[in-house]
Specification:
Strand content: 25-35%
Largest sheet: 5 strands, mixed, barrel
Structural class: alpha/beta
Order of helices and strands: HHHEHEEEHEE
CATH architecture of the largest domain: Beta Barrel
Strand order of the largest sheet: 2-3-4-6-5
Mean pLDDT: 85
C-alpha cells in the first residue's frame, strides 16, 4: 500500500510539472518547429534556395553603411543575394531561443551581427548550403581576428545585442576561420 501511494505521488508530481511546462500539450515535433525562428526564416536559413553571388571581401564599415530597406518583405531582397567575407573580432557568441548562434562582430567602431542557424532549422536548404552552415557553426568561437563569410541579410531592429545601424547581418554564416 505504501509503494502504491509513493507511485501515485510521483505520477501526480510529473503531471503537475507537465502542466506547468510552457510546452505542455505540444508534441515534440511542434515544439521543435516552434524553437526555430519565424520572421523571414526561409531567407535567413537559405531555405528559399537562392542563386547567391560569389563571395567578395568587404569591411564591416561598408556593410553597416548600406542603405536599409524601407520595408522588409518575406522574400529575399536583391542585395541579400550577396555573400561577403569580413575580418573582425568576435566579441560575443550566444545561443538564441530560435537555435541560432548569435555572433557579434566588431572592427574599430563598427559592429554587426552574424548568425549561425541550428542544423535542425534548415531542412529545405540545399545539401551544400546545409553542410556549409553546419561546418561554419561548429567553428564559431570568440576570436580576436576572425574571417567570417556569410550572406547579407537585413533584419528588423528589435534591440538585438550588436545590431548594426542599418540592421544588416551575415545570416547565415557560411564560413568561419579564427587566426
Amino acid at each position: 500500500m505504501t509503494r502504491a501511494l509513493g507511485f501515485l505521488m510521483i505520477i501526480a508530481a510529473s503531471a503537475a510539472a507537465a502542466v506547468a511546462s510552457p510546452s505542455a500539450g505540444r508534441s515534440s515535433a511542434v515544439a521543435g518547429r516552434a524553437a526555430c525562428g519565424v520572421e523571414r526564416w526561409t531567407v535567413k536559413t537559405l531555405q528559399d534556395r537562392p542563386r547567391l553571388l560569389p563571395a567578395r571581401v568587404a569591411t564591416i564599415h561598408f556593410l553597416v553603411t548600406r542603405p536599409a530597406p524601407t520595408t522588409l518583405p518575406p522574400s529575399r531582397l536583391p542585395f541579400e543575394r550577396h555573400v561577403f567575407t569580413v575580418t573582425a573580432a568576435v566579441t560575443l557568441v550566444r545561443p538564441e531561443d530560435d537555435g541560432d548562434l548569435h555572433v557579434v562582430l566588431r572592427a574599430g567602431a563598427d559592429h554587426m551581427i552574424a548568425e549561425a542557424p541550428s542544423p535542425s532549422c534548415d531542412p529545405r536548404a540545399t545539401a551544400v548550403r546545409r553542410r556549409q552552415m553546419r561546418t561554419a557553426r561548429s567553428a564559431v568561437r570568440l576570436c580576436a581576428h576572425a574571417r567570417v563569410t556569410g550572406v547579407a541579410f537585413f533584419d528588423f531592429d528589435h534591440g538585438q545585442t550588436g545590431v548594426a545601424p542599418n540592421a544588416i547581418e551575415l545570416h547565415p554564416i557560411l564560413g568561419f576561420h579564427c587566426s
